[in-house]
Amino acid sequence: MIGLRAGQRQPAAEARRRVLIVDDSAAMRSLLRTVIAKDAALEVAGTVADGAAALAAIDALHPDLMLLDVEMPVMDGLTTLRQLRARGNRMPVIMCSSLTRQGARVAVEALASGASDSVAKPQGLVNREAAVDALAAELIPKIRALAGVSRRPGATEAFASSFPARREPISAAPAVVAIGVSTGGPAALAALLPALPAAFPLPVVIVQHMPEHFTRLLAERMNAIARLRVREAVEGEPLAPGTIWIAQGGRHLEALAPLRAGAPATLHLTDRPAENHCRPSVDVLFRSFAQVYGAGVLAVVLTGMGADGLNGCRAVRQRGGTVLVQDAATSTVWGMPGAVARAGLAHRVLPLAGIAQEIARIAARARAAAIPAKDLHRAAV
Prior knowledge:
By secondary structure, this protein is of the alpha/beta class. Helix content is about 40%, strand content about 20%.
């Protein structure tokens, strides 16, 4: 053990993060209490049965994070979230939804409206212990990341403020935009995608870490607010300008090189094993598109926990492509973009509000110097 130097104080134990549980089911409140108790860095600030009670309790309980049910009497989760944000409260909120279509739809709407993340309530497990273990495995890492557990106070912010502004020359003419995003992604996409112009000259593909069924609802939600058409990815769809494709939850998304000159690359869905505990994986997307498009990939890494996309960005840079990442100040969690920035792979580290403008600026050169389809085929050989 390393001893303390003379006059150096023993550091105080890090305060436990306080979690407010909001759910109308007594059984679910009990389950979530048990889950929180499994991590010594967390404690339950309180439990309430509806959103109105949650809003009334916040000033007294001072929670660091809220677990918020979607469907509740008196005030549902979406209304609660909107009122919380309207008050200027930026506390992280994790939505707890059922796997029904309605539960998923409301959860996606909440995520696009500022919820930090979501988890599905356990169903079909043999006993309470199995439900606790399954929920804890998914929920605790999200709470720790969002509440800043085991992170030296200010460490991320200090790194971001000392990180030199990166303005590397970008010479490649992009042929496709590939976006990777996770925690906080729906809200980031809700800001980014509507800012892309209707005449945007490149196809756009997105991996958002989300369960099966949620991604189709996310695509529908984004299609309603974007100027470009937004769809969930379909096997064999040609990659042409005017459409944004979101990878299906539970399946990797890749590009297949065109079989003849002049034809576009096409989308390919696979069920290969998860990478970085994710399927779809950003690494799989970026590697595949770098193989097919070479220097024509404009890769964008937005908010998210973990490091999915780091190895994919290496592949993009090795092929001469371009990498943009979201900055720490505007990210819900600066895990994925931070990993890429720390590795020195980003051409630009930008606030969310500036990313669409930079994408459009870089993409504008595609009209004058687009990569011919025959070169796409050659890059994949």
